[in-house]
Amino acid sequence: MVDRLVNSEANTRRIAMVESCFGTSGQPLNVPGRVLVGEGVLTKMCRKKPKPRQFFLFNDILVYGNIVLNKKKYNKQHIIPLEEVQLSSIEDDGQFRNGWLIKTPTKSFAVYAATATEKGEWMAHINKCVTDLLRKSGKKAAEKHAAVWVPDGETQVCMHCKKTQFTLINRRHHCRKCGKVVCGPCSSKKVLLIHQSNKPLRVCLTCYDELSSAQTETGNETPINSSMKERNDSSGDDDSDDDTDDPSLQSPQSPTETMTFYEGGEASNGEASTMLDASASSAVETPAASDASTADATPNPTE
């Protein structure tokens, strides 16, 4: 059970290892009551292409980051409160298999595991953590979630006007309301999406019109009729393909890739995850390397 790991030395050591791997680029993670439930490499669908990302599941947050050096160094740390998370399974489609959506009010995206077994374990553990967290806090699950962005490569023309072709001059933009890829003129409006940001965000003309007509009824989004200078949405995009990744990690993932869960069952490779308690004591070991049950991780599908 998670509760029995709260004050254990093994849990404290694992969290310290995660903090060490992120270094100064990450936030402190060792807070009272927090437990590292599991970890592993998942392929995250980014705006330009799928990319491997290291994920850490805690009993209250989900953390992921870019893999700079496999099992040793990560950057671009992202922390997602689990009380905001909702999962949705994705049907297999060609090379993209064993996937699901991670949806939150501020950001939603797709991830893929190496095998169906891993997908099942990840989803089961995340859902259990979310359920336990909401039950203990008495809070309700989030009802609104950010749209999943359509990857850049899925369309060569604007998904709104169906005419403008994307080039080096005609850049792609994403509507923050529906997630579609649109051209500049078709996304020249901003709207305040209070669940995503306290600043007005770019939306397509269709979503702007819908929000404008519904404004007086809901009062949740306030359309702002303002023109925007043409800019590249990827500037400041935390999923930029300019990220530095470990070259040894290639997509798609290897079907033999494994993850490790430290509570509530066994690792996906069938070896007990609690083996770490007896085998990992060196301060130089990393979270993944410190568990004798964890094999080298090399990602699956294609962020």
Summarize the structure.
With about 300 residues, this protein is α+β, with helices and mostly antiparallel strands. The chain is built from four helices and 13 strands.
- Indicate the low-confidence ranges by residue numbers: 229-244, 251-256, 264-303
Main sheet properties: 8 strands, antiparallel
Shape: globular
Query: Percent range for helical residues?
Result: 10-25%
The number of distinct β-strands equals 13
Q: Which percent band covers the strand fraction?
A: 15-25%
**Helix count?**
4
Distance between the termini: 33 Å
Q: How big is the Rg? A: 20 Å
Order of helices and strands: HEEEEEEEHEEEEHEEH
Question: Structural class, from secondary structure content?
Answer: alpha+beta
The averaged pLDDT comes out at 78
Structure description:
The structure is a single chain. Helices cover 18% and strands 23% of the residues. By secondary structure, the chain is of the alpha+beta class. The C terminus is likely disordered.
Short key terms for the protein model shown above:
303 residues, alpha+beta, three-stranded antiparallel beta sheet, globular
Chain-wise SSE layout:
Blueprint: H1 9-22, E1 36-45, E2 50-58, E3 61-69, E4 73-81, E5 86-90, E6 99-103, E7 108-112, H2 116-137, E8 173-174, E9 181-182, E10 189-193, E11 201-203, H3 205-218, E12 221-224, E13 260-261, H4 276-279
